[in-house]
Specification:
The protein is an alpha/beta fold. The protein is 47% helix and 13% strand. Helix 6 links the parallel strand 4 and strand 5. The longest helix has 17 residues.
Length: 231
């Protein structure tokens, strides 16, 4: 059976694009908590860095409207070019097309703002005109309302887009815990960005395996002292 969507994501077959993770775009997001959104975006970026995933960062109207890309995202890719454009649709900018083509991978993982505009138009055009497979990271993207985000995801899925989450992508790239070359870096991302899962990892490491606490530096623990009753 020949169906490229049955191929799991690997560090060798996929590339990533971040679309418009800029403050003014984030201000309008109502489909997901915005701090959670940023956490997920940065976690995905760090995952891409660990697995050497070719990554494109594109922005729209930075100086006149949208503001500068999250510094936490840019810090993951120091020195990387940012592809500025005017169109809401990244596919309309030749630099973006060239970047995707140069990366040479048909599976394109997408995270962006807003889901119902910039993500959807890019996804549909990239599939139609570029013959790319699109994997839309739902929880590293956001829309102006939950309905706007959900309907955009539904429209894209009906057109053939594959919905994913950022942690799903991370673990699909890792695939096997025997891959020790990336294991520690993946665990670091998990403890920093994966919420309860990361807390569980910290607990297992320190309480079960007796590893040192992850906190930087040392912290003296003062033993309990019962307070004396008032006379």
């Amino acid at each position: 059976m020949t169906n490229p969507k049955l191929d799991v994501l690997t560090p060798q077959n996929s590339q990533l694009i971040f679309i418009d993770h800029q403050p003014q775009m984030a201000f309008g997001v109502q489909s997901i908590d915005r701090q959670t959104l940023k956490n997920n975006v940065v976690g995905l970026a760090k995952a891409a860095k660990v697995f050497n995933i070719p990554t494109t960062i594109t922005t729209v109207e930075t100086e006149s409207f949208s503001g500068h890309t999250y510094p936490e995202l840019l810090d993951v890719f120091p020195g990387q070019a940012i592809l500025e454009r005017t169109s809401m649709n990244s596919w309309d900018d030749q630099k973006v097309r060239n970047s995707l083509k140069t990366n040479g991978r048909k599976k394109v993982i997408v995270a962006g703002l807003w889901t119902e505009v910039c993500n959807t138009t890019f996804a549909l055009c990239a599939m139609l005109e570029g013959e790319y497979e699109i994997y839309m990271v739902s929880d590293a993207s956001g829309g102006t309302s939950k309905e706007a985000h959900d309907m955009a995801m539904l429209r894209m899925v009906q057109a053939g887009v594959v919905p994913v989450t950022w942690q799903q992508v991370l673990l699909e790239w890792q695939r096997d815990w025997a891959h020790r070359d990336t294991y520690n870096d993946v665990m670091k991302i998990v403890t920093e960005h994966s919420g309860a899962y990361g807390m569980g990892v910290d607990y297992a490491y320190t309480m079960v395996h007796k590893a040192p606490a992850r906190a930087v530096g040392t912290h003296e623990v003062l033993a309990p002292v019962s307070a004396t009753s008032k006379a």
